[in-house]
Design brief:
The structure is a homopentamer. By secondary structure, chain A is α+β, with helices and mostly antiparallel strands. In chain A, 53% of the residues lie in helices and 15% in strands. Chain A is rod-shaped and about 120 Å long. The relative contact order of chain A is 0.08. The interface between B and C is large, with 72 and 72 residues.
């Protein structure tokens, strides 16, 4: 089962280092880091992969918007270089390298630091995995750090290159918004998958009760608890971004962030609704078990209660006493049958009155 | 079972489009779109169906109040034309076409954008269905967008045409209020239906316990969870509308919005109360099952506990040992009967003392 | 069972009428409406029943305080006349006639509109019934509207007529306070009745468990849910009244309203406490059922587990095989008894060790 | 069982009296009222019991701090005299005599009125009893009203008389603080007693399950619910006292009230923690019952399932048909034993696989 | 089992002492108190153990930052000396010596008083133990008081001595931050340990159900309740520290405190998540018990219901009546077998239809 909340192994070594020391806290991946640079203004666009971070320094003071996407956050040297050249606070560098952050926004003088959680549904494992995305929104540049290479930002890249929408006409704040927006939009896909599961489970509730169903309910609850943990801070984060009066975010862009905020609320409400439904399903499931237990018990009770007295009567006349007058009677046998039928009848009527049969 | 919260199928294609791209996100309906225009002031009223949206452009700058109702939101071209002519924000257009919005209010410079959920109870399916209504409140016009044709706004139309109440003497803000009011009033009808169901269920709680009842409780819980999800944002929405200091809403009209706000609170409180009652009913139902199980078990235990020892005694004297002195005794048989009666009596007294019988 | 939250039947006809149309929404009572007028200042007091509402018009501009109490709210004409003469807002008139309002306070320029719920415990039906009281607090008059005639306000009337306390020296705000106060004080009587029931139920928890007790718990929960729904809005209402800076309420009177507020909080806390206790009682009740089931099962298991093997042994030697050597042994019968005793003993020791007996 | 929340009997007579009428609402105690007066400044201290309240009038305008403690609140005349001479509001007098107040603070022009609940643990009845203490904090005097004589304030008296700490150097606000502090400190003693009970119960959870334990859990829950009701308003009360900018409380004393506030929070958190633990214990207890029921059922099922088929086989060969070929076979008897052993073995293996044994 | 919330034994003697009297409230440890002094500025650093508290007085007015760490809080004389020399409020001294404080921050004119809880996981006892750390943050000094000697602050000491990070360049506020930070970082280690336990328990949920598992769930719940109690006030404490506008904390250091605040939130959210998961596990566990009980009952019912009627039939023909015609029939025996097979078959088909087998 996947570890969820457990801090990674290196935690113990990390404690005690000076705050602001960038140390990679995720699971070390030895893959090379990939740096993609897109520089654009209304008229021109450049896209290239660069191998040394130094190549992006010269874009720092260009008027055009520069987007530097870095896949892989385990290279402390690289992060430090970025930090030094772009004037980032040590705590920012530390947070970029530590994938166990909560979503948050921090305003600095020269830039805004945004931490987001990107969720993706892993079909084969049937659960939701989480990746941290950090954004540095500067005056005319945006850094995006991902834990590993992914294709989720491609639509944004396409829009820049093809000049769709207003992205080419807008500044770095709109770019940061676009990235945030596509991450939050992805949550709806996750919710869609989980929604399917919830409804599937609900449809099968009336069927047989078994441990398997119970496992499914428990694991859905678990997913919801995890999701909630990822999404709740998002709300407050986007809210504080929206309310920030940083000059880095222009007023028209704020309306777009407000739109993302609305989506976040919608995600949260949907999660809460699913959660309520799963809890209701669990209750219903438990009641269904009780109902069936009741039914099983009734069958046992009816059969046992009818036949145990009859067997006793038969047992009586199976005794071998020498002096048992009834044994000699002519119609005793049939009489006993009669008595038995009467006993059974009384029992059945009793159960009828109790509405058990 | 009806899909509730699942985003529609096209979601995947939507993600990645530039924000503000109006794309229809509901289930495509090929029915033609119907546009109804009502233009009125204190003295005159015009009502007509128009076939091309361009016909309403000339009403834009007229002093009289114009209400353009559009049934059907799947025609992106039409929405775009409205947006262009009336100066609507791209995000507004996108939201109009996406029926998965939460109720909300957005203030723009020239207009207020209102999203509402219209609920209706579908008798044959026995559940509540939801439709999105978007309102654009401009200086002297109101646009209303419905997913499909409906007759819920007819009373407002009648009041305009017949000049009842103050509607003809008031501006577009009062018209927007009237539409909001009639939508919220409709919630009471839904609550009435659900209230009937809740009380019906409560009356039948004392009857027999079966899976059917459990299903009813579960499905009522489900309806309440859904309803809550629809109605909660309404409250905050009307609240923010009421608090908006937009010049588009005049002070006397604010008092009417306050009235709608009160109704919303009342709807929410009633839903919460129903919810509490249904949960209490579920608990009571569960306890009733346990009670009955207890009763079943008692019957079984009493019968089995009395007759099993007796059958054992009968079994003893049914053994075929050659040397069993009792078998020869003259009154052994009657003695055994006596012993059995005594055992049964002891058992019965024991149960009496335990208050089982 | 009493309908609680269901809107009355006429709701459907009401929807669509222009807002502010006063239409009686309660159950029609054909009894004549009774109007009582009390006019007083520090020196003089007049009390009379009037038959036509017009008789009270002339008191409108008198300096003395006038209290007009109207029992019966189904006469739209009368309400309209009052509204016209005293300058009431159409929504106020509508709310007065609709007994399904939540408690609320609305400030208007010339008057404050207060809606309250008066509770009374109906002994024969053993539940709490609810009646709406609307107050109009004007500069020197108070209107009170009740659904039906009642004697709850008599102590206030007596205090006015006999000049007890400060009521004769104070203005209309103090009169409104006195009426509110006596309504809230009544809640304590209800709580006293319900408190008796709660404690009675608690005392009987340790007794036998039956469906009847379950019904009582459920119905107490139900009453608490209802009561909570009536009382919660009261708190916020009195709070907003207290905070209103309306010139109609003078500062010394505010301290009295603060006192009512404290009482409301006390009522709410008591209801919450009862609610917690009833839920705790339900849990305890459920556990008690489980405990008893356990006990029943133990008795069954002990008896069955001891005697079933013994009966089997007896059954063995009841077989009729020709060649069964044991049957011929001299002391086989007694040996079998010995074996049986040993088996029984082992079982009993086992149960002892398990602490079942 | 002790009545908890029930308003006292005289409630019915009280309703309708003019607000501010001091009427004793507790259980009448005919004991004489005891008035203790302590007057002190940094240099001198006088302590005496006085028999007539008039004796304390002359201390009103003295510069030294005067503490008048009144044990017994049933003498309306005395309370009225105090009220008249020290300028107390009628509602204050009413509240002093009514021991059913919530803890609260009310600022008046000349004094602050404080209502507190003093808790004490009654060892013999094993529950917590509650007493109301009202304080009047004036410019240089403090009145304290207790329902009955008690020794809880003695440490404060000793500190005054012996000049310990800063009390003699401080004003009446510090005296009021000292009294409040000692009342809140007492709560910790109660919590200590209840904490012992909670842990005792927890230790015994793993033992046998019986109705007695259930009673203990229920009664602890009940105590917690009561305690919470007493302590919650205290928090908000001390908070409002601390925030009051009354000139009667000097700044240095505010820090001491802040300390009391911290204690109150600690009391509340401890109560909440106990509450959570008791609920968790109840759940664990319920699960333990289910576990044991399961175990009981397994034993029954194993025994019954093995022996019922065997008994059936024995029954077969106990039939008396004339033509039963097996009966004549030489080794039939032993063969039957073999079959029985095989059946038993199969059953046992089945249970082993199911992990029941 | 460890006492958790119980105030220590001396509580009773403490009540009544003048507020601000420093009295040791923990369990007396007779070990000598250890005082460690570190004095540093950017260039120099002194570290020494001092035996008499007086030795640190001369550092009070030095410009360099002085950190005095005192292990052991049971020496009232020492604390009083510190208090006198450094101008501490009596309540501060009292709180330092009382290890039962909640985490809190108190601003005084000359210093900030901080109370923290240091948690450590005790491996052998398998539970979390708590120690109080008090900090006095003055202009250029920090006092830290621990209940007993520990090595948790060593990394901070190393950083000072080796001049790592910015600590040597910063003031006493940064030192206070560093100490707070290392304490909060430690919480993650605790969470790691508890997280392991939670996941271990979750993995074993599907295994067998026994009392042991129940004990584990209960004790994990208990730990979570305790942890929550320790960590919740931390949040509000660090928040108030961050918001304090004390001149003692410079602006750049505030950002670091903000970082600690984020960690605290993360700790709280993780605890809440674990708590939700443990509750969900308990529910699942309970349902699993019910499921298995159901299975057990089914086996019993199937076996009993098939064989009890068959045994009855066998019993019939084991009766010894002289006149039982069937006994003489040629194929009666085989006929009976046939009837029995038919009965068994019917039963089996019935169970098949019920989906029990």
């Amino acid at each position: 089962m996947k570890k969820i909340f457990r801090p990674t192994k290196k935690l113990k070594n990390k404690i005690g280092l000076p705050p602001g020391t960038p140390v990679y806290m995720g699971e070390r991946e030895e893959k090379k880091i990939k740096i993609t640079l897109i520089d654009y203004d209304e008229k021109n666009v450049i896209k290239k992969e660069i191998s040394r971070i130094e190549e992006c320094y010269l874009f720092k003071d260009k008027k055009s918007v520069t987007w530097i996407n870095i896949d892989g956050i385990h290279d402390a040297e690289l992060i430090k270089k970025v930090g030094k050249n772009f004037g980032l606070h040590p705590l920012t560098l530390e947070d970029i390298m530590n994938p166990r952050q909560r979503p948050k926004v921090e305003k600095f003088d020269d830039y805004i630091f945004i931490v987001l959680k990107m969720l993706s549904y892993e079909d084969e494992e049937e659960n939701v995995s989480e990746e941290q995305v950090s954004l540095i929104l500067g005056k005319n540049y945006v850094f995006s750090f991902q834990e590993k290479e992914g294709d989720i930002f491609n639509p944004v890249r396409d829009r820049i290159i093809n000049g769709l929408g207003r992205i080419r006409k807008s500044g770095s704040d709109y770019l940061a918004y676009s990235i945030t927006d596509i991450i939050v939009d992805n949550y709806f896909l996750i919710l869609e998958k989980l929604g399917d599961k919830v409804e599937q489970l609900e449809d099968s509730l009336t069927g047989e009760t078994n441990e398997n169903r119970l496992q499914q309910i428990h694991s859905l609850k678990r997913e919801m608890i995890r999701l909630r943990k990822s999404v709740w801070p998002l709300r407050e984060m986007i809210n504080s971004l929206e309310k920030s009066e940083s000059p880095l975010i222009e007023k028209p862009t704020l309306r777009f962030f407000r739109d993302v905020y609305d989506h976040t609320i919608q995600v949260i409400e949907t999660i809460e609704t699913y959660r309520d439904m799963i809890f209701s399903m669990h209750d219903t499931y438990l009641s269904a078990i009780s109902n069936r237990m009741n039914e099983v018990m009734k069958v046992l009770t009816i059969i046992a209660t009818i036949f145990i007295p009859l067997t006793f009567i038969a047992g009586i006349y199976g005794m071998n006493f020498e002096f048992m007058p009834e044994l000699k009677w002519r119609f005793a046998y049939f009489g006993v049958w009669g008595i038995m039928a009467a006993v059974a009848l009384v029992m059945i009527l009793y159960f009828k009155r109790k509405k058990w049969i």
